[in-house]
Amino acid sequence: MMTSFLQLSFALVIMLLAAKFAGYLSMRLRQPAVLGEILVGILLGPTVVDLLHLPFLDPSLKHILHDLAEMGVMLLMFLAGLELHFRELSQNLRVAAFSGSLGVALPVLGGWGIGRLFGLDHRAAIFLGLILAATSVSISAQTLMELGRLRSRVGLGLMGAAVLDDILAILLLSVFLATLTGTGDWLAMLGILLRMLLFLALAFAFGLWMMPGWIKKVDRLPISQGTLALAISIMLTYGLAAETIGHLAPITGAFLAGLLLGRTDQKEKIVEGVHTLAYGLFVPIFFINIGLSVNGRQLHPQMFWFALAVIGIAIVAKWLGAGLGAYVGGLSLREAVQLGAGMISRGEVGLIMASVGAPYQLVTEEEFAVVVIMVLITTLITPVLLRSLFSAHSKPSTTAVPHESREDA
After folding, report:
1. Contact 253, 240 (CB under 8 A)
2. 337-366 pLDDT per residue, tens
3. CA distance 11 to 284
4. What's the CA angle centered on 332, arms 331 and 337, to 5 degrees?
5. C-alpha to C-alpha distance for 134 and 33, rounded to whole angstroms
6. CA 94 from chain center: how many Å?
7. At what angle do helices 226-244 and 250-261 cross, to 10 degrees?
8. 168 and 224 in contact (C-beta within 8 Å)?
9. In terms of pTM, does the model score above 0.85?
């Protein structure tokens, strides 16, 4: 019988080597590395190999790997924030506002319509719409970084829209659950909104006025990797505060931490350290874990048409809503189509939203399996769509607005 540490070591060896090999094959096939990493995760998951249920592995191992995967997605979003300039992002707020708003509204309406069409009651249909409103931009951020497009107008608008999407989705879900339990009153809803605003105010106040001084002082001290340790501590604190104070996803806090740390003189040193740590260990585990959470055997044949409809409306409604919002916000038609495609992925956010409904009996086991498949398909299709949509314009653009100086690019 292997000790728990040896079991973890065994799983990590398999996952890391499989992720890197699959990512390499995916790149050779002119696809994003993330696609191969997720696909090999499916092969290692309960659909085929069922790695985590081998006889000599403790079932509790999956919880440890899940936590490591959560660290991976936080580091990924932290890096995305570090790669962006605060001024560039603020100049794309109009795009983010329209894209984030319509990118929530259309999926909610579409999900509700599909739910009613397939016989779900009114509450369950609304909840399905709320699940489809979620967006997990981590996959898109990784793909855009691979393509060198994260700081393009599309990338900047996408990141801003994703933050607004997170805020709106959480607000709508809170209102819905409060109404469901009969405790909904406008004071409670106002309280949730005020907590979000409080978190954002505290995050920006600390990040703009105190964080640069702290980082500069620690960087001068004779401490091994002290700057990196402080940066990661700030990222984790922002993630913790985002959920406990603002009722937002921890990845939103990690992104804001990266965005604010990106203004410091120590940015390059932080990026170098975080990049090595993230892509050497945590990020591959995150992508593999997405596949490990998928069990294709749970999808019964009688749910096929429902699953097909949910997947279809998840893709079309988010793409159309976010893309239309981006176009109204000022992007060209081509850029709007690219941004809309980048918002399709639901990732872990969609699964979290679905799991919230379990105590309220809003999602059956079969419907949850459909949601998992939807999350998988939207996660897989997003990097493929982005690469293909950007392929006709292969020269990377690091320009957020036409007149920004080369010095800030």
Report:
1. yes
2. 999 999 998 876 777 777 777 667 788 877
3. 13
4. 90
5. 24
6. 21
7. 140
8. no
9. no
| Boundaries of every domain in the chain | 71-287+303-400
State the amino acid at position 307 in one-letter form. A
Whether 189 and 167 have beta carbons less than 8 Å apart is answered as no
Tokens 């890096």 belong to residue: 79
> Regarding the domain delimited by 71-287+303-400, which CATH topology (the fold level of the hierarchy) does it fall under?
Na+/H+ antiporter like fold (1.20.1530)
Ranges of residues in the chain whose predicted pLDDT is under 70: 1, 178, 180-186, 188, 298-299, 348, 358-359, 392-409
